Amino acid sequence: MDSERPVFVQIIEVLEDGILDGTYGVGDMVASTNQIARLFGVNPETAVKALRTLADRGVVERRRGLGMAVLPPARETILARRRQEFFDHLAPRFVAEARKLGISRDQLTALWTAPPKEDDHDQRVDQV
To answer: Fewest Cβ atoms nearer than 10 Å: which of 10, 68, 86, 106?
Structure first.
């Protein structure tokens, strides 16, 4: 876990990543509040806050007696929000830092076109 960002935000990202990579499909139930709390070693209220935020964003909905299910527009909703965040926040900082360090467009292009590396520290919540 990243100590610089709120834990509930990190939980949201893990769950969203699971939707984006197909771990959770439309209609699938995501991990429960208690499962998330145990997995991340957090208070259940932190897990509730993460799931509530996802519900507020239209990514999941509560199914009475079952838990939270992934909604049909979840993938597109997540992609649209993350792309906007990327262009608004990450890309400008990345470009500014590259310019400051004298990194050329050719070097960035080589980085972009290189085969992706697997992230050994990628954490996913197992499908329920």
So the answer is: 106
Residue ranges of the chain assigned to CATH 1.10.10.10 = 7-74
Buried b (16+ CB within 10 A) or exposed e, 52-67: ebbeeeebbeeeeeeb
What is the value of pTM for the model shown? 0.80
Tens-digit pLDDT profile for the chain (128 aa)?
778 899 999 999 999 999 999 999 999 999 999 999 999 999 999 999 999 999 999 999 999 989 999 999 999 999 999 999 999 999 999 999 999 999 999 999 999 999 988 764 454 555 44
